[in-house]
Design a protein that fits this description.
- The protein has one domain: Methylamine Dehydrogenase, Chain H (7 Propeller), CATH 2.130.10.
- It is mainly beta.
- Strand 16 and strand 17 form a beta hairpin.
- The chain starts with a helix and ends in a 7-residue tail after the last strand.
- Helix content is about 10%, strand content about 45%.
- The strands form 7 sheets. Strands 1, 2, 3, 4, 5, 26, 27 and 28 form an 8-stranded antiparallel sheet that branches. A 4-stranded antiparallel sheet has the order 6-7-8-9, with no helix packed on it.
Length: about 375
């Protein structure tokens, strides 16, 4: 009798799960509720192409980079036939071709890759017998295997994700300070001095970032700020826009008379555009949205990971948003893991999890291509 009751109960559970899955599929196929499952049908801001590949995560998020205006380099895996289920295919390094809507394998999946100025650098976490790191580096498609020797204990060495090169503190004038967090920019652009390290961060007084351009140029004090132990402007908040030919800095901490605090949902968001050629800074304001992450400039406006704010309060509807200078539009629903824009500003490669709202573990983050220039105005 107990076995029969257990079997009957299990059949009911599996039946409910099956019904729930079919209901979700049916709902997501309906244009009425696509806002909760994928593309927001209220806007035709972009054409959207699913690549059929999921992307993994690294220290700085999914590894995605535009090679040119047509090709996207990424580390990923073939998606599961069920779009809500995670894939178990092997991770590899691929190149997506937007013109042919096809993918080709470039290399085995690396632990990381860095792409800048037509050159790529990636590794598999391997070392030789002497302890030197083994790296693949060179023009894309013509990489060579090199070894990176261990740095002397007294040398301050780092890696720039903007130039994909190693550097030491003495490579710059003035030398990179040892007691401050710094961010080395593209070749010839100098470096940014961010917040102090260690105990020097205890002060809650606002401090400005400083740009050192070298070549005899005077340091430039920037309007972006950091605060002691909170609201740090981390390197993840600073990106380079090939479209703008400038750096984009997202200010994460709100400054008020009562001191620094989390950004209020009712306040417009602020992005700074930094041009290192002359040290000029442009301040961009975007209507209230929360959360607010990964802002990128395109030909039709700013895109970012955001959410809907109504009467000064967050009401959900997270996804990919576009602000065209007049109003905000949600163009994709879900959790946004990464956004990269093509050099001409027409396309964006976006890592998005359309099923993060479903109470399931391991829902996939997929790579989609958004083309803003392919849509004709009505």
């Amino acid at each position: 009798m107990v076995k029969l009751l257990m079997a009957s109960t299990m059949r009911r559970v599996y039946g409910l799960v099956s019904w729930w899955r079919m209901s979700v599929r049916a709902l997501c196929a309906s244009a009425i509720v696509l806002q909760g499952c994928g593309v927001d049908t209220s806007t035709t801001a972009a054409t959207v192409t699913p690549t059929g590949y999921d992307v993994g995560s690294s220290l700085f998020g999914p590894e995605i980079a535009w090679v040119d205006n047509n090709q996207v380099l990424f580390i990923g895996q073939k998606s599961n036939l069920d779009p809500k289920e995670r894939s178990y295919a092997a991770f590899k390094m691929y190149i997506w071709n937007e013109s042919t809507k096809s993918v080709r394998e470039h290399a085995d999946a690396a632990h990381f890759f860095c792409y800048a100025d037509s050159r790529i650098r990636y590794g598999y976490g391997k070392k030789d017998e002497a302890g030197n790191t083994i790296i693949h580096e060179g023009p894309l498609g013509k990489e060579e295997i090199i070894t990176v020797p261990l740095a002397p204990s007294h040398a301050l060495r780092g890696f720039s994700y903007f130039s994909c090169k190693l550097y030491s503190s003495d490579d710059f004038v003035p030398p990179i300070p040892k007691d401050r967090q710094t961010l080395v920019l593209r070749e010839g652009d100098g470096y940014l001095v961010l917040q102090p390290t260690g105990s020097a961060r205890s002060s809650y007084v606002a401090k400005n970032l400083i740009l050192y351009r070298g070549k005899g140029a005077e340091p430039v004090t920037l309007p972006m700020t950091w605060y002691g132990n909170i609201g740090l402007l981390t390197p993840q908040e600073i990106t380079y826009s090939a479209y703008l030919r400038a750096y984009v800095l997202h200010q994460p901490t709100f400054e008020s008379d009562q001191g620094p605090r989390d950004w209020p949902a009712s306040e417009p968001r602020v992005v700074y555009v930094l041009r290192t050629s002359d040290g000029s800074v442009e301040r961009v304001t975007i209507p209230p949205t929360t959360p607010f992450k990964r802002p990128k400039s395109t030909k039709v406006g700013w895109i970012y990971a955001g959410g809907l704010v109504r009467d000064g309060k967050w009401v959900g509807h997270n996804g990919l948003y576009l602000y065209d200078g007049n109003r905000q539009k949600k163009i994709e629903a879900g959790t946004i893991g990464a956004i990269t824009v093509s050099p001409d500003g027409c396309k964006a490669a976006v890592a998005v999890n359309n099923y993060s709202h479903i109470p399931m573990l391991g829902t996939p983050t997929t790579l989609k291509i958004f083309n803003f220039c392919a849509v004709t105005k009505r």
